[in-house]
């Protein structure tokens, strides 16, 4: 009895192996976006007007970064990661913002969700970041601030109170009244 042999068996196509229709992806994306916006709104309402939680962390060189050391300045916390495309796309904006507002008493502090110190250090050097980024202790700070999506920006006034928090803030508008 002779049988044809095929090195790759042919399986009948199952319903579950067919690609999802385009509209399913669109609707799913809109649901995820709505959840992120609601989470951002809830996050902002819980911290806005409250004293910013103090923290102590270290940058990639091991230097200490303590939020309370920045009292008297307007601080923008940038919660981000090198693996987050919108975060990486925002880096030039954050650098330009730091450069334009530093003399006015505004400081940007990055809080990185990266897991590998070498990846973050290489990124900082390649991108020539002009503001400090917390690496060691960042997970605790992310939890402390209730951050659930990246990037998230937190604007803190000179007295140490949270004034704005969100994912897509117009920083010039947010900081102008605090100068």
List the topology elements.
Elements: H1 22-47, E1 56-58, E2 64-66, E3 74-80, H2 85-101, E4 106-112, H3 117-127, E5 133-134, H4 138-144, E6 152-156, E7 162-166, H5 171-175
From the 3D coordinates, which CATH architecture would you assign? Answer: 3-Layer(aba) Sandwich
Helical stretch count?
5
Unreliable runs: 40-44
Report the CATH topology name. Answer: Glutaredoxin
Oligomer designation: single chain
Main CATH class: Alpha Beta
Helical content (DSSP H or I, runs of 4+): 25-40%
Overall pLDDT level = 85
- Largest sheet strand order: 5-4-3-6-7
Report Rg. Answer: 22 Å
Strand-residue fraction? 15-25%
The end-to-end distance, rounded to whole angstroms, is: 89 Å
Give a quick account of the main beta sheet: strands, pairing sense, barrel closure. 5 strands, mixed
What is the CATH superfamily?
Glutaredoxin
Estimated structural class: alpha/beta
| Series of secondary-structure elements, N-terminal to C-terminal | HEEEHEHEHEEH
Counted beta strands: 7
Shape: globular
Describe the structure.
This protein is α/β, with parallel strands linked by helices. It has one domain: Glutaredoxin (3-Layer(aba) Sandwich). The protein is 37% helix and 18% strand. It is built from 5 helices and 7 strands, in the order αβββαβαβαββα. The chain has helices spanning 22-47, 85-101, 117-127, 138-144, 171-175, and strands at 56-58, 64-66, 74-80, 106-112, 133-134, 152-156, 162-166. The strands form 2 sheets. Strands 5-4-3-6-7 form a 5-stranded mixed β-sheet, sandwiched between helices. Residues 40-44 have low confidence and may be disordered.
């Amino acid at each position: 009895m002779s049988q044809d042999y095929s090195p790759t068996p042919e399986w009948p196509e199952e319903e579950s192996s067919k690609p999802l229709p385009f509209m399913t992806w669109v609707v799913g994306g809109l649901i995820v976006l709505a959840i992120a916006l609601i989470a951002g709104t809830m996050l902002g309402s819980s911290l806005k007007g409250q004293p910013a939680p103090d923290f102590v962390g270290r940058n990639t060189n091991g230097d200490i970064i303590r939020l309370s050391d920045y009292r008297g300045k307007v601080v923008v916390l940038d919660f981000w990661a090198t693996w987050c495309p919108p975060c990486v796309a925002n880096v030039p904006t954050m650098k330009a913002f730091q450069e334009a507002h530093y003399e006015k008493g505004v400081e940007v502090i990055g809080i990185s969700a990266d897991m590998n110190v070498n990846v973050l250090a290489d990124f900082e050097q390649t991108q020539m970041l002009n503001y400090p980024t917390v690496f060691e202790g960042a997970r605790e700070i992310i939890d402390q601030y209730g951050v659930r999506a990246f990037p998230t920006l937190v604007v803190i006034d000179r007295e140490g109170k949270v004034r704005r928090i969100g994912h897509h803030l117009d920083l010039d508008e947010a900081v102008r009244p605090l100068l």
